[in-house]
Design goal:
Low-confidence stretches: 1-8, 24-51, 130-168, 170-202, 213-235
Largest sheet: 3 strands, antiparallel
Structural class: mainly alpha
Number of strands: 3
Radius of gyration: 45 Å
Mean pLDDT: 75
Number of helices: 23
Helix content: 40-55%
Strand content: under 5%
Shape: elongated
Order of helices and strands: HHHHHHHHHHHHHHHHHHHHEHHEEH
Distance between the termini: 135 Å
């Protein structure tokens, strides 16, 4: 049986789908029908309103988009994602303003070029704006208005007919300047005090008068430096032409912490300070009033500092104050004097550097500061090691490191200069350590006289008092015509007291 070729209806192997003619979203699921008799796009448009995402873009716009993504127009310093955002903004803005068909897309700068222009405009506030066309092509001016705050703030003018936009109602230049900081505080491009870049015009009057009295006489120098703004929290004084010379003739003067520039009328010159030092030494020997003497020495040191006096007299003043502070156990003032003396000794101004080097080593033994002690030992010269005071301090350090309490207390009883005042601050701690060693080595008891001689006490009464002050009177027993320490009944008793004393290296243990 034969059949005619055209007797059956033709069948297709695919379903016709309308071509998408927009750059926007996806087609709706109901827009494509499985029937081969689907209406054409033109027919559908005549009966139903067009979707927002579907638009027939002009050929000029398509060509503009293709040129934007062409390999020859890609700029390495412009990110692709940033360029796509800029391109969408340009096209969307032209659609909203109805200028899609009037813009000259062939001559319009590419989005990556606009981005570069915005960057250059951000880094140079004086860059003139691009001219806008007068035939309704507002896209040329609108492309300058970036989402970035800096680009919007430095734009000097707008092409919207003088209308101020909500985000442009503040002083653009002032807000831009408030976020800029110049490392050297100098006005850029030769701007003077009247320039908008100068913050001195924005300072309140109260702050301008803040240090008027302290900086009197420096206005001429300050006027030459307009970048020294009064809006800063600290007023920087001008460079002095030289050290001040005091005119005060009083031998005694209370110490006041300086809060402004020193007044020469309240500063004593060098020849008066020399008389003051002799007066204070005599008064210290006669009255021994340390709070008053310390205040007077601090005032003397302040006058030396503000006049920049660094001579052998300066070294003498600091050394005498340091010795008095040691005698009274004032380590705070002693440390201040010791710090200044180290800097003065480097200048070879005389004094007693070996003596105070020995004090420094003993001080580190008191504070158990191993780090600074190692630094001192590394910097010692052979000449310094041979000096008697320094050699004594080094021997004391070695005896403690080896646990040789017998040698340590021999050195304690023969300390040169004023080193004994420093050793008194930690000898109680070392006596507890020695008592702990004696209790472990001697059983069942030892004579108290042995403890007195080994631990450097002046008498048996002092050694017995030391033991009782640390809570061990029950370890003392009187028999056979003498007092004995019951070492067999004190296992670890002095170890706990030593641990408590070692936990507070800066606290003096009773001796």
């Amino acid at each position: 049986m034969t059949y005619a070729r055209n007797s059956m209806p033709p069948t297709t192997a695919f379903t016709a789908v309308a071509a998408r003619r927009n750059f926007g979203g996806q087609q709706q699921a109901g827009s494509v029908h499985s029937s081969s008799t689907s209406p054409s796009p033109s027919a559908a448009g005549s009966t139903n309103p067009p979707d927002k995402g579907k638009r027939d873009w002009p050929p000029q716009v398509r060509s503009y988009v293709q040129r934007s993504f062409a390999d020859g127009n890609i700029l390495p310093d412009v990110d692709r994602q940033e360029m796509e955002i800029k391109l969408k903004k340009i096209i969307s803005q032209s659609v909203e303003e109805g200028t899609l068909a009037t813009i000259d897309w062939d001559n319009l700068p590419l989005p990556q070029v606009m981005i570069q222009d915005e960057r250059r405009r951000t880094h140079s506030s004086h860059f003139p704006p691009l001219p806008s066309k007068q035939n309704g092509h507002s896209i040329l001016t609108n492309e300058i208005k970036s989402n970035k705050r800096k680009s919007a703030e430095i734009e000097p003018s707008d092409s919207t007919g003088g209308q101020s936009l909500p985000w442009r109602q503040s002083d653009d230049r002032e807000s831009f300047e408030s976020r800029l900081s110049y490392p050297d505080k100098r006005p850029r491009n030769g701007a003077g005090p009247d320039s908008p870049f100068s913050k001195s015009n924005q300072a309140p009057e109260a702050r301008k008068k803040r240090f008027q009295g302290a900086l009197a006489g420096t206005s001429s120098a300050a006027s030459l430096r307009p970048w020294r703004s009064s809006t800063t929290h600290e007023v920087e004084p001008t460079e002095p032409k030289g050290p001040i010379i005091g005119r005060c003739q009083d031998l005694e003067k209370k110490y006041f912490r300086l809060t402004s520039a020193p007044n020469p009328d309240t500063v004593r010159p060098l020849h008066v300070l020399e008389k003051t030092l002799d007066h204070l030494k005599k008064k210290w020997r006669r009255e021994k009033k340390y709070p008053y003497i310390c205040d007077q020495f601090k005032s003397l040191r302040q006058d030396l500092t503000v006049q920049r006096i660094k001579t052998s007299f300066t070294v003498d003043a600091y050394e005498i104050h340091a010795r008095i502070a040691l005698e009274e156990g004032d380590l705070s003032e002693y440390n201040q004097c010791q710090t200044q003396l180290r800097a003065l000794y480097v200048q070879n101004l005389g004094g007693h550097p070996f003596e105070f080097l020995a004090y420094r080593i003993l001080y580190f033994l008191h504070t158990s500061n191993r780090t600074d002690m190692n630094d001192v030992l590394a910097d010692l010269t052979p000449t310094e090691k041979r000096h008697p005071a320094v050699k004594h301090a080094l021997d004391a350090r070695s005896a403690l490191a080896l646990g040789n309490y017998h040698r340590f207390f021999q050195l304690y009883l023969d300390t040169p200069n004023m080193g004994a005042y420093l050793m008194d601050m930690f000898v109680g701690r070392e006596r507890l350590s020695a008592l702990s060693a004696v209790c472990r080595a001697y059983k069942p008891d030892v004579r108290l006289r042995f403890v007195t001689e080994e631990l450097g006490f002046d008498s048996d009464e002092d050694s017995a008092r030391f033991i009782c002050e640390h809570g061990a009177p029950h370890l003392l027993e009187e028999r056979d015509g003498g007092v004995h320490l019951l070492t067999g009944k004190a296992p670890g008793f002095f170890d706990s007291a030593l641990k408590a004393a070692s936990a507070r290296p800066g606290v003096k243990v009773p001796t």
